[in-house]
């Protein structure tokens, strides 16, 4: 499961951030002016040259290179694994769409006010507690092996189907909490304004609360999606030939771990752009708020 | 004269704190009543109770002769007849100015989008905001945002407007443009209840001024009488403090 679960919400109301202007903040990362840029480049090159030299010159390196970084093995395994990785892409894409909708439903149920809705609130809370508590691989095993074994009429027995259901259930629990944090971050005065205009509770939620909440939670939501994409590899456990199982088969045939590295490369290649995209969204939101504060 | 608002024995507590202790007040059609009193005296709560944004503990309220505090009242329908403007504007930040003004027309009144847009254009023109129609609220000054909030409330053609310290969050230089908009509304015959700390404005615009202290309406009367010859000692003390603070 992916690391950072904390939700960084852009601070609700458009309030001036008295900090440094955006330009100064950026310059701290990349060193700003000409001289500091050169120092940053030079120190980086030297640092990695030393680390690289130490690794390559260590006694175990030739063995490590043979097992993990065999160029010939990589050239054979990479396209083989990539061909199966499209199955992962299909699985996590379908799951992501389902999660977006199902998690919002759970979050809305949990945010319903009033004593009448207590059973629904309890149900939604129990759901999120349960599926955040059980390991993803266990849910995949229970549904993927268990449901087809029931041989119930009308229930699909495809392991692919149940794998998608399992990922959707687990990640909806996380994303529902993200949505809920977003919904609760909307100031009650927004709801009061909507209700004062004669909008019903549902209309206020639909037109005023949810659109603002979703906008605020896009970064943490995308972080959860990165976790979901990685967890699509757990489906190998069901014997469904997606990328990880394909890599495992090649590894077992050739007694070489390079196929795993090839799959890692694929995962990193799709997740890093997404992580950068999340950073960019957060920075854009911050710039927007600073821009409006200068008025 | 018919009554726009009638309030009898209104009580409201938050926990142990009794904020309104039996309010009786009537507001006639086309009348402007200004609520004055210290912060915490219950002005905002009174306005929020009239708009049913806070459930009342006891007492009854009628709007244009219809009781709105009874059982089985459609609160949404009541709120459509009452426009309220808040101290902090409370515009919808994710919508353009235009959408802020058309949303409730379409969703609460089922007005045709073309008609809603025409109504919004008319109101934005009236308040000098036409060129801001496609901007988002955070690109507007506080005074402009508050005028959009007034336009948004007026778009539903309310019977009554409630204004809750609408200039308190504004830069002093922006107060005048909002007060002018309210004066214009008063001149057009809009029934209004205005909670305000702007005593000069209250004296100009109000038909009657009501002084609230600790949840009780101590005295209600024409501005000339309240400001020059208050009957109650508490009113006199409050006005002396306002004058000492240079707010009048």
**CATH H-tier superfamily of chain B:** P-loop containing nucleotide triphosphate hydrolases
Distance between the termini of chain B: 32 Å
Note the quaternary state here: heterodimer
Order of helices and strands of chain B: EEEHEEHEHHHEHEHEEHH
CATH class of chain B: Alpha Beta
CATH H-level name of the largest domain in chain A... which superfamily? MetI-like
Largest sheet geometry of chain A = none
Measured by DSSP, the beta-strand proportion of chain B falls in 25-35%
Envelope shape of chain A: flat
Distance between the termini of chain A: 42 Å
Taking the sheet with the most strands of chain B, its summary is:
6 strands, mixed
Strand content of chain A: under 5%
Number of domains of chain A: 2
User: What is the mean predicted local confidence, pLDDT of chain A?
Assistant: 85
Low-confidence runs of chain B = none
What's the β-strand tally of chain B? 10
**Any idea what the CATH architecture of chain B is?**
3-Layer(aba) Sandwich
Order of helices and strands of chain A: HHHHHHHHHHH
Taken from the alpha-carbon principal axes, the silhouette of chain B is: globular
Radius of gyration of chain A: 24 Å
């Amino acid at each position: 499961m992916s690391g950072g679960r904390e939700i960084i919400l852009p601070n609700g109301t458009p309030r001036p951030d008295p900090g440094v202007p955006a330009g100064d903040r950026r310059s701290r990362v990349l060193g700003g002016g000409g001289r500091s840029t050169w120092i940053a480049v030079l120190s980086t090159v030297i640092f990695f040259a030393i680390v690289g030299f130490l690794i390559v010159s260590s006694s175990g390196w030739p063995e490590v290179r043979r097992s993990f970084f065999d160029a010939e093995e990589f050239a054979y395994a990479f396209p083989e694994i990539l061909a199966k990785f499209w199955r992962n892409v299909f699985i996590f894409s379908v799951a992501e769409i389902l999660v977006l909708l199902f998690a919002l439903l759970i979050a809305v149920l949990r945010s319903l006010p009033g004593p009448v809705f207590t059973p629904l609130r309890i149900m939604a809370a129990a759901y999120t507690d349960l599926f955040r508590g059980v390991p993803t691989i266990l849910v995949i095993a229970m549904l993927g092996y268990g449901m087809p074994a029931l041989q119930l009429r009308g229930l699909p027995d495809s392991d692919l189907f149940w794998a998608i259901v399992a990922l959707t259930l687990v990640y909806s629990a996380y994303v529902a909490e993200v949505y809920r944090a977003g919904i609760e971050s909307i100031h009650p005065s927004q709801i009061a304004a909507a209700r004062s205009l004669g909008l019903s509770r549902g209309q206020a939620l639909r037109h005023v609360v949810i659109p603002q909440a979703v906008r605020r939670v896009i970064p943490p939501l995308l972080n959860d999606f990165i976790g979901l994409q990685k967890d699509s590899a757990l489906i190998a456990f069901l014997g469904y030939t997606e990328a990880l199982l394909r890599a495992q088969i090649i590894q077992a045939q050739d007694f070489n771990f390079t196929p795993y590295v090839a799959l890692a490369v694929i995962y990193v290649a799709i997740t890093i752009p997404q992580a950068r995209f999340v950073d960019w969204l957060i920075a854009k939101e911050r710039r927007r708020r600073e821009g409006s504060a200068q008025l | 004269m018919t009554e726009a608002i009638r309030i009898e024995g209104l009580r409201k507590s938050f926990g142990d704190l009794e904020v309104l202790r039996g309010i009786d007040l009537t507001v006639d059609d086309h009348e402007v009543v200004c609520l004055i009193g210290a912060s915490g005296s219950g002005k905002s709560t009174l306005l929020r109770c009239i708009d049913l944004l806070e459930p009342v503990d006891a007492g009854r309220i009628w709007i244009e002769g219809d009781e709105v505090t009874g059982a089985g009242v459609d609160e949404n329908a009541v709120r459509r007849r009452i426009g309220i403007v808040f101290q902090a504007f409370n515009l919808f930040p994710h919508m353009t100015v235009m959408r802020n003004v058309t949303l409730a027309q379409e969703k609460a009144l089922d007005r045709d989008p073309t008609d809603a847009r025409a109504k919004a254009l008319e109101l934005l023109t009236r308040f000098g905001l036409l060129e801001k129609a496609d901007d988002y609220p955070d690109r507007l000054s506080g005074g402009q945002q508050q005028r959009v909030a007034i336009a948004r409330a007026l778009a539903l053609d309310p019977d009554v407007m409630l204004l809750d310290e609408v200039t308190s969050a504004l830069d002093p230089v922006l107060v005048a443009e909002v007060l002018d908009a309210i004066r214009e509304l008063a001149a057009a015959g809009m029934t209004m209840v205005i909670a305000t700390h702007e005593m000069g404005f209250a004296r100009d615009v109000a038909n009657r001024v009501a002084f609230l202290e600790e949840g009780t309406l101590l005295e209600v009367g024409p501005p000339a009488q309240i400001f020059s010859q208050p009957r109650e000692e508490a009113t006199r003390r409050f006005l002396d403090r306002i004058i000492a603070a240079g707010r009048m």
